[in-house]
Amino acid sequence: MSLIPLLNDIVGAEHVLTGDDATAYLSDWRGRYTGKALAVVRPENAEEIAAIVRLCQQYETPIVTQGGNTGLCGGATPSNKGDAIVILTTRLNKILSIDTDNDTITVQAGCILQAVQEAATNAGRLFPLSLAAEGSCTIGGNLATNAGGTQVLRYGNARDLALGLQVVTAEGEIWNGLRGLRKDNTGYDLRDLFIGSEGTLGIITAATLKLYPQPIAKSTALLAFEDIQKAVKVLSRARQGFGSALTGFELMSAYCLEIVRRIFPQIKVPFAPETAPWYALIEISDSESAEHARNRFEEVIGAAFEDGDIVDAVIAESGQQSHEIWHLRESIPLAEAEIGKGIKNDISIPVSKTAAFIEKTNALLQAQFPGIRHIIFGHLGDGNLHYNIGAPDGQEEGFLDYQKDVYKIVFDSVASFEGSISAEHGIGQLKKDILPDYKDEVELALMRKIKRVLDPNALLNPGKVINSVELY
């Protein structure tokens, strides 16, 4: 008997998509990868996913799990072989429970991140994971890639926000680890194995997540700097002055603001183009009062002004102005997409080495590709840069053909500064062949051993993170 009728029996024929009905789920969000699949299957719960996995083991059928399909490395797109099924988790979209005494929320993996944020808000709590795709990305995908976002500086990555998981294993068993415990020292931390594994070790179906008190007030400002080293200095001053109240420190080059101004003229950019070459959005969250937040903010920022570390600053006077400053930052990727496809890098560098890395790598790239545009922004507070490269004006056609050469220059430089070639986007299929050049061989060997133990038939998201030919 063929696989499709058996899948129909598990989830219902209306939730097994083939042919044209499946097409929308076979390409990644950036349009860089398109694959084929036997079917796209939409289960409703962990039990149905477990049954699907057992069936796929029987038929030796690869499985690709997909949530909101907002990934940037092709991790949720099947290959061109057409031998896999895609498990779509979007029907697993229930908020299962909220415990305000324990400050936890338990949700299914297909919940949209924004829906989890809103559920926490309605309960008088904060779920702090926040990123540009929060209106469409899912919690399962956030955990599978260990997503970061704009508040990592204060609250950590997705891994730091997860207390427990429910996971369907490669054998089709269900591990119920939805424990809301902050201390559980009873053996190996299986949770952390699955988080960040991009669906290659198991399928996350639910999670118990940390909640936090809602801040009483926030203060936001956009600061201008003459160089990155001054921005790093102010970041250190802010850490000391604000402590855990510092929630965001987002770096942006002047060119980033320029393209936002050009593509979205309706967005207010509060500085003239010639003000400074670098900018940073800084935000603190205060647990006392708006006045207390404002006073602390002005004290620290004022001292940086007096020392000559800041060229200029705009401090938000209202929630609306704060929203406008954040909207400016969040519009950079959208503006970047409008000016033409570029070569994206999601890297991390020790904060202390950021200025030197950018100076050196910019020079290396300009020497090889004169006139390229440096579209640099990201989360300076945690060392994560979106170090993106745009084609020289008028040379957009075919620029992506140079991606391998650009990656070589950038990643070699990242390695020389003791950084990482992936900070929050994952490896997927985009970087799986590059990873061995920059990962310690012992680390890679351990990763392969874990993969062989947890997915012995290599059916879970094959060809992602680890090259399948290296496994056996």
From TrEMBL:
Q: Which UniProt keywords apply?
A: FAD, Flavoprotein
Q: Which residues form the FAD-binding PCMH-type domain?
A: 33-214
What Gene3D superfamilies does the annotation carry? 3.30.465.10, 3.30.70.2190, 3.30.70.2740, Uridine Diphospho-n-acetylenolpyruvylglucosamine Reductase, domain 2 (3.30.43.10), Vanillyl-alcohol Oxidase, Chain A, domain 4 (1.10.45.10)
Question: What processes in GO biological process is this protein linked to?
Answer: respiratory electron transport chain
Question: What are this entry's molecular-function GO terms?
Answer: catalytic activity; FAD binding
The lineage's top-level taxon is: Bacteria
Names of the cofactor(s): FAD
Q: Which Pfam families match?
A: FAD-oxidase_C, FAD_binding_4
Q: Which family does it belong to?
A: Belongs to the FAD-binding oxidoreductase/transferase type 4 family.
Q: What is this protein called?
A: FAD-binding oxidoreductase
Organism of origin is Pelistega ratti
